[in-house]
Amino acid sequence: MRTGKETVSSMEGQDIYLRLMTEEDTDNIIRWRNTDFVRRNFIYQKPFTRQGHENWTKTMIETGKAVQFIICRKLDDKPVGSVYLRDIDRTHRKAEYGIFIGEKEAMGHGYGTQAAKLMINYAFHKAGLHKLMLRVLAENGQARRSYEKAGFVEEAYLKDEVFLEGVFKDVVYMAVIEK
User: Fold this and answer.
1) pLDDT tens for each residue of 8-23
2) CATH, residue 132
3) Residue 98 lies in domain
4) pTM, to two decimals
């Protein structure tokens, strides 16, 4: 069994490539996470700060509990979002998958699906994981379709799971298992 400490600095898809997040990406990540069209699709919707990002880097990335990549468009090398694995559990060989496209003009081009496929490959063939799961707001049909195209399947539908913007919202758990 792999230790899970293997890493790659970049992965390439058809229209995008993923590269490891660096400190220089901090301003983009903060800006993206605080953009309404990104924030409203997260379960954690509080303002995203430099201190919060630095804490994430220190407690999750540097400890190996998470790995985060920047999604870059091949056409012009422009960073357009981020994808990550968090709460990496090496005992049970699983992790939670997360993604956001931060540039509005980059949405609807299949970058999210491509990034998900690259991360699934990374998780199973480089990090030695067996299962990836994710949580998505049930109302986010575009994201759910993208996850399905990448190979995720619905495992659970939780009614009134989170309280956001003054209303309870449903959450869908999806997962992909190594074949």
Assistant:
1) 677 898 999 999 999 9
2) 3.40.630.30
3) 10-177
4) 0.90
